[in-house]
Design goal:
- It contains 18 helices and no strands.
- The longest helix has 26 residues.
- The chain is 67% helix and 0% strand.
- α10 packs antiparallel against α11, α11 packs antiparallel against α12 and α15 runs antiparallel to α16.
- It is an all-alpha fold and 329 residues long.
- It starts with a helix and ends in a 6-residue tail after the last helix.
Length: 329
């Protein structure tokens, strides 16, 4: 118990920052008011009441607002990262950018636009040159394997699957090292959802599940669950393999023969994952508090992209309302 308290206390300063920063999160009502604007200039004027105000003043409708919102999210996480006693926590939200940039380096594209946790432009340039000595693990092993696969004639599509699996495996290795049950529960559910959707889409395409499974496995504590999904083959036989409330979300979608059922399951699972993340809000200090706040930041970035990019693209407001995720700010 003393060790656990000492660990929680070490997060005191950054938890204090989060306590202040939470007051600036955007509410559900704010997104609704943004959607109500008919004119672009009114929408952009309203955005001046958000943390994106500087971008509004410097730019306009012609810029890539999705990229601006993503960059703002990255800057917020990077700022918190400086104060976190264990950077593996904020890095959980940045690892995907590392693997997206890694793919670009492996395919000889010299621009690396995605937010990064570890892979700096210098390290990515080393990957592009096949000089891996300075590249840290597990990226070094992933890059070496990918280079060999590409030289053997494997396609970029096959590289995508391998890098996605490496990213998911990296997440699980990171949460195992963090030893925070709430965060472990969240990311094990997240990875299981991603794996199930990959297998489901393979089934819908009329393909065997063994090929994607061979790339996904092993997957830490989820290895047996993924093997059970493959053994059952037809997603309609997966009942009971996906456990608990996540299984209930799955069962609500699996009976549909609609090709979009897998995507709807993934969207429904996002709400379930958010419910896990919000359990950390009641923590006065500790990694759970930081984790919950960053999850809410990610949700805010998603909702802003839905509203701003959607309205600038003239998408109907009612359609966008249905895509919003519930904020608890």
């Amino acid at each position: 118990m003393a060790a656990l308290l000492e660990k929680a206390y070490s997060w005191g300063f950054v938890s204090g920052r989060v306590n202040v920063l939470e007051r600036g999160l955007l509410s559900q009502e704010f997104y609704q008011s943004l959607l109500a604007h008919q004119r672009t200039e009114d929408l952009l004027r309203h955005l001046q009441e958000t943390p994106l105000r500087d971008a509004v003043n410097a730019a306009g409708t012609w810029v890539d607002w999705s990229a601006i919102i993503d960059q703002h999210f990255y800057e917020q996480v990077a700022s918190l990262r400086k104060d976190c006693p264990d950077v593996r926590l904020p890095d959980l939200f940045l690892l995907q950018g590392d693997y997206q940039n890694l793919k670009r380096a492996l395919t000889q594209r010299s621009v690396y636009p995605f937010p990064h946790a570890v892979l700096t432009p210098e390290l990515l340039a080393a990957v592009a040159s096949h000089e891996l000595m300075s590249v840290p693990e597990p990226y070094k092993s992933v890059a070496q394997d990918a280079i060999e696969q590409l030289e053997a004639g494997k396609s970029v599509a096959e590289l995508d699957i391998k890098l996605d699996a490496a990213y998911l495996r990296h997440l699980l290795e990171s949460v195992e090292a963090l030893k925070v049950p709430l965060i472990t529960e969240y990311f094990e559910a997240y990875v299981l959802v991603r794996a199930a959707v990959v297998l489901w889409r393979s089934f819908l395409a009329g393909n065997s599940l063994s090929a994607p499974a061979a790339v996904l496995l092993p997957m830490k504590n989820l290895t047996q669950a993924i093997r059970d999904l493959v053994a059952a083959a037809d997603p309609k036989q997966w009942a009971g393999v996906i456990p608990g409330k996540l299984g209930e979300v799955f069962n609500a979608h699996v009976e549909s023969d609609d090709v979009d059922a897998a995507q709807r399951f993934e969207l429904g699972a996002n709400d379930y994952l958010a419910s896990i993340a919000r359990r950390g809000v009641g923590q006065v200090f500790g990694p759970e508090r930081i984790f919950s706040y960053i999850c809410e930041l990610a949700l805010q970035a998603y909702n802003l992209k839905v509203v701003v990019c959607g309205r600038l693209s003239k998408i109907d407001a009612d359609m966008l309302k249905r895509r919003l995720r519930k904020s608890h700010a």
